[in-house]
């Protein structure tokens, strides 16, 4: 028997066609969409507003959910990490990060990752496979249900960051489709303005993203101030180097909306890319490209075996930040969250 269709992957229009093919009226598609996304139901049985025979018909060919939560860890700082499995048994990791004003969910776009960033544990897995749009959406549904209860409203909205496992721009089509589905008012209603997607530097997709009418915010992982070091830390740099990346960033800057900025992320590795000289190099580099609407997030490296890197001292992190700011670059230090449960940046690798 062929695999059941995963209706969480369907746009509203696709769902309407699907329902029509079943010989059902169009409004059933709206009910199912609402059941899946607004009410966050994980099975057709729970959609009691649908007649029983339709629920049975749906169950024959389709499914409402595919991801299974295998384990769930809660950090002392409230961060929650979810280790899930796809129906073909590939690992998916998602992290919930509570903050005072707004909660954030960090989702994965791939199972594993094909890029070989030297400081990242996910890289050790290699690429297992791209996640479908439905699998991306389902991660958010599962986390929201876990934190707030099935279908319950989120108290102060939710931000999404595409910074979990995988390189989102190598799964661009599914990513954009998932964001469209999640932005629907009769669904999760998480608009692109509340989403940030991070790339290791897939340059053509930065240009493509800039052209989209409804697009998420962009973060670019830079992590080195020159090509020599970046080649080593992020081998994708050998395909598109820093100059090509910053040209693309410059072009992206033109697409920014009012009050919007984009972000460079810089993972600070003790003694490797965190010296005063490297901070000056980084500032000069960005100033040379006259990137005015950019900020830098400094991310202290999260140690995890078998990686050999170690975090910078807090004193050096502050110095690095000060040097950037003296040269006119706004810089922020991202406080690590969920380190004790392997939920922090660069630590996602299906570890239990
Ligand atoms: S840092 Fe991101 S892009 Fe690089 S290997 Fe890890 S998951 Fe992939």
Draw up the topology in text.
Elements: E1 5-6, H1 12-21, H2 27-38, H3 52-61, E2 62-63, E3 68-74, E4 80-85, E5 91-97, E6 103-106, E7 110-112, E8 127-130, H4 133-148, E9 158-162, H5 172-183, E10 195-199, H6 203-211, E11 217-221, H7 227-233, H8 242-253, E12 262-268, H9 276-288, E13 294-300, H10 314-326, E14 330-333
Helix pairs in contact: 1-2, 4-5, 6-8, 9-10
The structure holds iron/sulfur cluster.
What is the overall silhouette?
Answer: elongated
Order of helices and strands: EHHHEEEEEEEHEHEHEHHEHEHE
Q: Helix content range of the residues, please?
A: 25-40%
Q: What is the terminal-to-terminal distance?
A: 34 Å
Radius of gyration: 21 Å
Q: How big a fraction of the residues is strand?
A: 15-25%
CATH superfamily of the largest domain: Aldolase class I
Q: Kindly state the number of beta strands.
A: 14
Which structural class should the secondary elements be placed in?
A: alpha/beta
Q: How many DSSP H or I helices?
A: 10
Ligand inventory reads:
iron/sulfur cluster
Tally the structural domains.
2
Whole-number mean pLDDT: 93
| CATH fold field value of the largest domain | TIM Barrel
CATH architecture of the largest domain: Alpha-Beta Barrel
Which strand order spans the largest sheet, edge to edge or round the barrel?
Answer: 3-4-5-6-9-10-11-12-13-14
Q: Biggest sheet, in brief? A: 10 strands, mixed
Low-pLDDT stretches are none
**CATH first level of the largest domain: which class?**
Alpha Beta
The oligomeric status of these chains comes to: single chain
């Amino acid at each position: 028997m062929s695999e059941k269709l995963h209706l969480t992957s369907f746009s509203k229009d696709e769902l309407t066609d699907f329902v029509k093919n079943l010989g059902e009226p169009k409004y059933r598609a709206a009910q199912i969409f609402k059941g899946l996304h607004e009410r966050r139901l994980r099975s057709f049985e729970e959609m009691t507003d649908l007649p029983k025979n339709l629920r049975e018909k749906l169950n024959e060919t389709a499914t409402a959910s595919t991801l299974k939560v295998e384990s769930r860890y809660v950090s002392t700082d409230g961060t929650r990490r979810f280790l899930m499995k796809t129906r073909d048994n590939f690992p998916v990791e998602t992290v919930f990060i509570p903050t005072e004003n707004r909660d954030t969910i960090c989702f994965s776009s791939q199972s594993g990752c094909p890029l070989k960033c030297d400081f990242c544990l996910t890289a050790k897995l290699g690429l297992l496979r791209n996640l479908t749009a439905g699998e991306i959406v389902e991660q958010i549904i599962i986390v929201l249900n876990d934190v707030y209860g099935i279908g319950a409203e989120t108290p102060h909205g939710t931000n999404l960051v595409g910074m979990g496992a995988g390189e989102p721009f190598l799964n661009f089509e599914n990513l954009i489709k998932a964001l469209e589905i999640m932005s629907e008012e009769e669904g999760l209603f998480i608009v692109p303005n509340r989403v940030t997607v991070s790339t290791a530097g897939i340059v053509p997709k930065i240009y493509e993203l800039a052209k989209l009418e409804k697009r998420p915010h962009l973060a670019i992982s830079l992590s080195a101030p020159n090509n020599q070091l970046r080649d080593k830390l992020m081998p994708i740099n050998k395909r598109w180097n820093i100059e090509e990346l910053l040209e693309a960033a410059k072009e992206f800057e033109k697409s920014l909306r009012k009050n919007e900025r984009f972000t460079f992320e810089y993972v600070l590795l003790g003694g490797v890319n965190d010296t005063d000289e490297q901070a000056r190099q980084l500032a000069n580099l960005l100033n040379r490209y006259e990137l005015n609407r950019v900020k830098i997030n400094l991310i202290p490296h999260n140690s995890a075996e078998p990686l050999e890197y170690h975090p910078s001292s807090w004193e050096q992190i502050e110095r690095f930040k000060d040097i950037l700011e003296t040269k006119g670059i706004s810089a922020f230090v991202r406080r690590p969250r969920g380190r004790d449960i392997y939920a922090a940046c660069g630590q996602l690798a299906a570890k239990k």
